[in-house]
Amino acid sequence: MIELVLFDVDGVLTDGTIWMDADGEVAKGFHVHDGLAVSLLRTHGIRSGVLSGKTSKPLDARIAQLRFDVSVTGTLDKRDALQRIMTEQGVSADQIAYVGDDVVDLPLAGVVGRFYAPADAHPLVLQAADVVLNRAGGRGVGREAAEHVLASRGLTMQEMYASMLEGITTSHVVQ
Known about the structure:
The chain has 175 residues and is α/β, with parallel strands linked by helices.
């Protein structure tokens, strides 16, 4: 059973566009559906995090805002990072789902319990994925993956969202 969902960032939680000025990266566009996905997973006792090759101030701000359980950025050796995460989080590879879109994510395919790819992922990633999602990167991929994980536990859409709908407050949900 999946206990931890890890997301790549550029091309998964964003559409891959990077806005830069002369001082470097200044903005990233995140989809609100993916923010809600983190809250949805948390509601059902599933941890979430990011495992990204890049680091940036906009990413750090989003990580803090969503209160991810795991945050590993600035590393392209994702297999080594996964080993560290498994040790720190006390989970095995088969308890982890990963959402990745590019060739740097391929070392995790066949290693984690479930490997997801956005619809617009690199062709090699699409071939390696356990599940190809319907949405493109930056367009709610995280939420689609979260709902898939919960559906694989046998939950209906109504069951997934029941507790959120019963008393939704801004202290419980961040988009």
